[in-house]
Design goal:
Helix content is 45%, strand content 25%. By secondary structure, it is an alpha+beta fold. It folds into two domains: 52 residues, no CATH class; 117 residues, OB fold (Dihydrolipoamide Acetyltransferase, E2P) (Beta Barrel), CATH 2.40.50. Helix 1 runs antiparallel to helix 2.
Amino acid sequence: MAVAVAKTAHAASAAMQVQSPITVTSISGGLFMKRAFATAAVALLCLASIANAAQTVSGKVTKVRDADTVVVKGVPIRLNGVDAPESGTKAGNEATAAMKRYLRGKTLTCELNGERTYDRWVGVCFTEEGNDIGAVMISNGYALDCRRYSGGRYRNLEPAGARSRLPQARYCK
């Protein structure tokens, strides 16, 4: 009779494995579930700490891609609310050159908002002196405020005539 019970329990266990592996492991004992729960909890804590640590990036500028994207310590950052002309255009090349001149040798602190666009994190970057580099590019006429993402915080910095001189991305209108 014990053999028949063992075979029946084994068959029931095999049937449960196909339908729900979690149910089978809970039948075989709570130790596995405790370990799985502990591992999941540790993984969530690690992910949360990584996310919190990644919200601020500080370091030397390693590359200026264009007037609204910089790389700091290997992290590409898209400046939130800044609409600069595309590289390859006259205005875009001028804006990129201005950003390179302005950031040469500088250390930035970038506050990331957790969003990504393509391979870039989105954020606002400040020089050691506390200057918002996006605001500097806009106030010097190299970029426009992208109200959709900035909430209009840079609009009053745009010099007269900037909107008629610089093209604005469709997604900013």
